Amino acid sequence: MNPNLNLLQPYPFQRLRDLFKGTTPNPAYAPVNLSIGEPKHATPQLIKDALVDNLAGLASYPTTIGALTLREAISNWISRRYGLAPLNPETAILPVTGSREALFAFAQLIVDRSKPNPVVISPNPFYQIYEGAAFLAGAEPYFLNTLPENDYAMDFASVPVDVLNRTQLVYVCSPGNPSGKVMSLAQWKVIFDLSDQYDFVIAADECYSEIYFDESQPPLGALQAAHQLNRSYKNLVVFSSLSKRSNVPGMRSGFVAGDEKIIEKFALYRTYHGCAMNPAVQAASMAAWNDEAHVIENRKLYAEKFQIITPLLSEVLEVKKPDAAFYLWAKIKQSHGRHLSDTEFALTLYREFNVTVLPGSYLAREAHGINPGENFVRLALVASLDECVEAANRIKKMIV
What we know:
Blueprint (H helix, E strand, L loop, with lengths): L11 H9 L11 E2 L11 H9 L14 H15 L10 E4 L2 H12 L8 E6 L4 H8 L3 E6 L15 H6 E7 L11 H14 L2 E5 L16 H7 L7 E6 H5 L7 E5 L1 H14 L5 H11 L3 H22 L2 E2 L8 E6 L9 H12 L1 E2 L1 E2 L16 E5 L4 H15 L1
Helix pairs in contact: 2-11, 3-11, 4-5, 7-8, 12-14, 13-14
């Protein structure tokens, strides 16, 4: 077998199951799960109708590149959302079966193992797929700690030149998981300039781009940043998804877009990789990308939860509303002369109050002398408002 499989660490939710093993939660409380970023809002009817109305498509093999009508719908959405000229749907866009599989597959495409000691850079904490993708592509992950004192920015100035010379791929997540931080135009310029200098590819993970709180200020996207800086999309590919935007995580639908030369090779790779999108899902995806009304309503539900939950929890945790996404990244305070670690916090909350949250250390690796997720917990406000309020009150009760 591939020996690099031995480098993979248990996934955060497996670690959480191991932490809870043998523990019985307090039966006096109904369970509330805030650990996993799985949308719980209702799937829009227009998407379900499109899926059912196109089940006849199951009788045909789909193509890897997807229907042109889907790629056109995605191109038009990108143009509307980011104020850009439409991308060529024939050459600059590929449908993918969710951003997760595409983010993983992308490293297998990009990393050139013939070059010595290739490096893949990612933020830390991070979406765990980045690390696994790097290892299985034969590369060394290099983590840039994103810390609250630095406003969760990736500090590329701290990266040694030797590492930059070996860097082939940089994963960027904006809005960030777990911080919810949106990158500024100035931060994008730093990465673009380094990409030009060191010729690495940028994989911009934008799966949370449509969960934000001010309709007049949607998060800046990577393609949009490139356009504003008067540069091409060379070495830039963005990854987007319907899962969070449209509450269809089970549909596994997203897209990649950007550098046409890379998209051409990615299409070739995916032809052999075997991950063409179900024709009925393609039809449902078109319905989703063509409609914004359901997305606006979805944002309103999250905005209401953050408006109510953030002040409640700020009484007992160091937490503030993020720029975007649906996570609260909360630092644990000292309470009554004692300080619970993030794992102790999660275990106690589960055992005594039947609320599940994710220890921050599970989302990060020790790098440059610290684990930047330690003493944090991630709360995904995906449950109903009533459940989130109940969970917040239980957290307050545990700490106070």
